[in-house]
């Protein structure tokens, strides 16, 4: 089992994990998904085991209280990052509860520290805020409202590394 930076050949499998992990309204195209690596060339990871991708974490440097859009490619970020934004983490349903997500999250925290980025941020969807709270994240107060497509339960969350 290994955590590796996602390679070009992995994106189809990564996309297949997303399709199994989320309801259809949160599916992104493989092109949009792979575009996250333009913003974070070294911070999009997958977990490989048994010859396949079982899970992934896509993250990239970002700044400010307005998160990047879900489902949209071509977003630009220039300037000094104040956060590593965790765009999406998902594990194949049959592979959950084995610590894969915790290992990917540890990788992101270590990477952010090495880059001198002191915060992790994300939008928790589908009621996952309780999962993230257990990982030490808290709601970011005072931020602009999140776009409606994230769903009513969405919460902007952050954590210092
Ligand atoms: C969230 C997710 C990545 C966690 O993956 P995982 O491999 O099960 O995580 P870990 O093994 O590190 O941790 C499992 C623990 O988290 C808990 N957990 C998993 N999903 C949860 C959720 N949505 N809400 C609350 N707790 C959750 C499990 O019950 C388990 O608890 P335990 O340790 O007491 O048994 C996985 O459930 C997933 O892919 N979900 C669908 C996609 C998703 O919601 N991603 C996050 C969007 S913000």
How are the SSEs placed, and which strands pair?
Elements: E1 2-5, H1 11-21, H2 30-39, E2 44-49, E3 52-62, E4 83-91, H3 100-115, E5 119-124, H4 129-134, E6 138-139, E7 155-160
Parallel strand pairs: 4-5
Antiparallel strand pairs: 1-2, 2-3, 3-4, 5-7, 6-7
Bound molecules: coenzyme A.
Give the bound compounds: coenzyme A
| Element-level helix/strand string | EHHEEEHEHEE
As a percent range, the share of strand residues is: 25-35%
Low-confidence stretches: none
CATH architecture identity:
3-Layer(aba) Sandwich
Q: Name the shape in a single word.
A: globular
Q: If you compute it from the alpha carbons, what radius of gyration comes out, rounded to the nearest whole angstrom? A: 15 Å
Ends distance: 25 Å
Observed structural traits:
alpha+beta; 161 residues; globular; seven-stranded mixed sheet; Aminopeptidase; binds coenzyme A; 4 helices
Structure explained in plain terms:
- It is a single chain.
- The protein is an alpha+beta fold and 161 residues long.
- It has one domain (2-160): Gcn5-related N-acetyltransferase (GNAT) (Aminopeptidase, 3-Layer(aba) Sandwich), CATH 3.40.630.
- Helices cover 27% and strands 27% of the residues.
- It has four helices and seven strands; from the N terminus they run βααβββαβαββ.
- The chain has a seven-stranded mixed beta sheet with strand order 1-2-3-4-5-7-6, with helices on both faces.
- A hairpin with a 2-residue loop joins strand 2 (44-49) and strand 3.
- The site of coenzyme A (COA) has 19 residues, from strand 4, helix 3, strand 5 and helix 4.
- Coenzyme A binds next to strand 4, helix 3, strand 5 and helix 4.
């Amino acid at each position: 089992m290994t955590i590796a930076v996602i390679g070009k050949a992995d994106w189809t499998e990564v996309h297949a994990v997303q399709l199994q992990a989320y309801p259809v309204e949160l599916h992104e195209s493989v092109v949009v998904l792979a575009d996250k690596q333009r913003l974070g060339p070294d911070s999009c990871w997958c977990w490989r085991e048994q010859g396949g991708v079982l899970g992934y974490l896509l993250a990239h440097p970002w700044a400010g209280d307005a998160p990047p859009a879900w489902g949209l490619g071509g977003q630009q970020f220039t300037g000094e990052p104040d956060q590593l934004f965790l765009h999406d983490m998902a594990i194949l349903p049959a592979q959950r509860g084995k610590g894969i997500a915790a290992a990917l999250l540890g990788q992101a925290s270590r990477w952010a520290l090495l880059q001198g980025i002191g915060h992790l941020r994300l939008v928790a969807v589908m009621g996952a805020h309780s999962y993230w709270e257990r990982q030490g994240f808290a709601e970011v107060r005072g931020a602009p409202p999140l776009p409606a497509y994230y769903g009513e339960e969405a919460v902007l969350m952050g954590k210092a590394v």
